[in-house]
């Protein structure tokens, strides 16, 4: 997985402050410099004044101004399963790599290549919430269990990619042949969202029990957001952890 910031509003926190000051000023923000707009806000310089303003907005849950700055992220190599989860968020604009126009026939069905690698697959500690070993696997040592897991995963991938190629060879269009590809098949995403939505996605998708892949993606996005809008996302990380690190709904 690779997450990059493609494009973002310049000086997002100046924009947040200008929008918020608009609510409380009798004069028009469009006619004033940023220093004038921020004149009555506490702080020795503009950076401190921005901090005062943004902290106050976040403390009071005044989130509207955070909807003005936007950021666009490019995400490489997440599963279609992760894509299905993130695209549930309705205030985000997405572009998703097409399986109609991009053919997967030259990609290898290897974990880590065309399909995501399950990080814990080779960890004996990885078991589902209600997992019980089936009778045939009871009594196997850790090594044998891990080998069986790896084999089951690789066999499924090979079988599905083999069928995909066969369907293409038989003249079936890529948009139909893709039906046999696994949900772990990798996809690239471009997504644009505002700073408020970034925090909301952080709340839900970086939650302690969110699925590992979307949690990893969200943490990478939040790290980039902290470089883009440092006052906002450092405050979010330090003071709103109870939202971020709770259990997902
Ligand atoms: C751990 C986890 C497990 C999940 N499991 C499932 C599952 O099994 N099945 C499933 O279908 N989904 C599941 N979801 C998805 C979840 O139910 C939401 O659909 C998804 O996270 C989008 O978030 P959101 O509802 O906050 O909406 P967003 O689209 O992110 O919107 C942000 C906010 O805007 C407001 N809003 C947006 N649209 C409306 C509207 N039409 N009416 C009223 N308010 C609105 C709400 O306040 C909402 O919180 C899961 C999510 C998580 C994090």
UniProtKB/TrEMBL annotation:
Annotated residues for binding of dUMP: 85-88, 98-100, 178, 205
Reaction equations catalysed: dUMP + (6R)-5,10-methylene-5,6,7,8-tetrahydrofolate + NADPH + H(+) = dTMP + (6S)-5,6,7,8-tetrahydrofolate + NADP(+)
Cofactor: FAD
Pathway: Pyrimidine metabolism; dTTP biosynthesis
Keywords per UniProt: FAD, Flavoprotein, Methyltransferase, NADP, Nucleotide biosynthesis, Transferase
Keyword Ribosomal protein among UniProt keywords: no
Amino acids binding FAD: 88-90, 194-196, 200
Enzyme Commission designation: 2.1.1.148
PANTHER family: FLAVIN-DEPENDENT THYMIDYLATE SYNTHASE
Assembly and interaction partners: Homotetramer.
Name of the protein in question: Flavin-dependent thymidylate synthase
Record organism: Halorhabdus tiamatea SARL4B
Lineage: Archaea, Methanobacteriati, Methanobacteriota, Stenosarchaea group, Halobacteria
